[in-house]
Structure formats: structure tokens, C-alpha cells
Design brief:
mainly alpha; 70% helix
Length: 413
Amino acid sequence: MRGAAGALTAVALGHTLWNGLAEPGTALAFGILITIGELARRDPRAEPGPGDRRPAPLASAGALAYALLGQNAGQPTRHGVLQIVVVVVVAALAGIVPHIARGHGPVVDHVARRVLTVAFAAVCFQPLYNSGRLERLGQGPYLVLFLLCLLVLTALCEAVLAAVLARARTGWPYGPLLRDELRAQLGIGSAICATGVVMALGVAGAGLWALPVFSVPLLLTQMSFHRITAIRTTYRQTITSLARATEIAGYTPPGHARRVAALSCAVGRELGLSERELTVLEYAALMHDIGQLSLVDPVPDGATAVLPAAEARRIASLGGEVARQTGVPAEVAVVVERQAEPYREQPVAARIVRAVNAYDDLVGGDRHPSGSLAALEELRLGTGHDYQPEVVECLARVLARGGRDRVVPVPPG
């Protein structure tokens, strides 16, 4: 996919250099808009996830508007698909350079996805417009219906490309990734598509002055999302810091909660959990040992997996009460308090936390000198009552692909 985007860019650049830039003023205006949108993008490291989902909504809307531009102040435009690709690529790269200079620039996938999505929209629109077929639709409901259908197809193209690139980058299952991308299209994605169409129609009637008019609301919305992202990041760091309380108090080994959270999320991805379910899973995994703070005598090495069932359930129940008092979502507290129950009575997240916690307890001690294989074998022996077989096998596959030390850790608070 990166190769296809690169080849398309090379062909478009050669064609534009040979034939010249049509309507340079219009190209410059949209290029500046896309560049500003890229400069205003959020830090891609602010939230964990499979990739940069909607990193620059203003730039995306501007690129889509240029692809769907048929007239400028009532005058027909002459730019084609290849020029659209060139303008989008040059403007996106210009906006990305400052981010790269600060050390957290986006990966090549971001530009490749933008190029292919915009090229798809332009190929669907520009030939029909230049041939005069769209003029036969007039300005009535048929044109609106055509644009709506084109927006749906473009959104689907964006979701498919994003999921494919995330799959190649992370190795996570494609189905859940595509599902999360499609859900994202219902939110800010639909606003971006609608704004791009409104921009194109506004420029067609009022000229380039319509660009700043329709850009300001989306830019303000983007700034609001920045603040929401910062709040979520701070909340996540608070949960991570709270989870370290058991380590600081000496109840659990250093890094235990973060290892369990990182490995639980990897198993959850393997099982196809959505991003919201993964967030609940991560918080619950971070706080799964919080109940040990209520104990008078700490469990040796914090290894609750080897405790009698009644004692493990009591500690889990205490953990659920502590979690509720911290103000975390109710689903997180439920997972924490039910992690020691038989797996048939547990929600999926609790099954994952129980299995991964037991694995880390077994590997972390010196009871299994042969390491992870012996720990997995013991988990398999407990699949009749304690651990769900599917969860254990997913854990084995995750470990086989990367090993325990290669699972991306949850950053400390």
C-alpha cells in the first residue's frame, strides 16, 4: 500500500512538472489549508492505539474539498486527479516537518493513507465533472444523493486503508481493527466528510473566501478534541500511578501491574475486543491487585494466583470496593472484583486478567525454572475451572509471536 501511494505520487509529480500547475492560486489556497491542518494535528503519542486515527481533521477536510472541487466562484476548474495528489502530498509533508523536528512525527502510513483516500474521491468525482455528466444532475436532490454516496464510499475506503495499515504495523486481527475504524467514521469522520463537501460547494459559489469561513469551526473543534485527549491521557496516567501503590508498598513485584496490563491488552486484541472494551480491560488489569492494600499481611510476592480460591475471591472483592472509591467506571470495578471467580461466571475482561495475572505470577517467581512454557502448561491444566481455554490459547499465540519482553508496556504514570 505504501508502494502504491509512492508510485501514484511519483506519476502525479512527473505529470504536474511536465504540464505545469493549473490554477496555481487555488492550489496554493488549498495547500495552505492542508498545511495548517497538519500543523494543528495532535501529538500521535498522546493516546495508545493502533495508529493515528483522524490526526488532522482540518487537513483531511481540506484535501477532500479540493478533490471534490468542480467550480471556483462559478467558473469551472481545470485541475485534475494527479494535480490534486501533488498538492495534497506537498502540503501534508510541509505540515509534518515541524512535528518530525520535535521528535514525534507521524509515520509514512499517515501520508500514504491520505494520498490513496483523496485519490479515490478525486477519481470518483473529477472525471464525471469534467465530462459534464454531473451538470445533467443539476443542483437538485440527485446531486446531493450522488455526493452522499461518494462520501460513504470515501469513508469506507478510509476505514479499510487505516485497518490494513494498522494490521501490517501491529499484527493485530484485521476484523476488530476495521470495526473500530468504521465506528470512528460515525463520529469525527462524518463531520470531516460533511465539512469537505460544504467547503467545495462554498468555494464553487463564493470563491476561495469560503475556505476560512468553513475552516474556523472545524479548527475550534479540533482544539476541543486536543483538550479531551489531554484529559484522557491525564486520567490514564492517574490510574497507572494508583496501580503502582501496591508496588511501592511492597505488596507486588515492580512492574507487575504494567506487565499484566500490556499483555492483557494484547490478548484482548487477539480475541477481537473493541477499543472501549480494551480501555476497560487495561484499567482493570492495572488495578487488579489494588485489593491487597487492605490486607494486614501481604501475599508473598503478590502472587494471588496460588492462593486458595476463597482467599483470592476475598482479595478481589476488596479490590472492587477500592476501585469504586477511586471513581473509575463501574465496568472496571466489576472486572476487578470478579477476576477470581470460575471463568464461566466472569465477563471476558475478567477472564483475561485472571489468566494473564496467573501467568505473570508463575513466570515471575522461581517455581518454574523452565519459564513461560511451564507456566502456560499449568494454565492449560486449569482450563476446566479457572481459566478459559480460548484465553489461554490466545495468550500462547501472543507470546509465541513476540515473547513476554516484546509486548509493548503501558507507560508508567
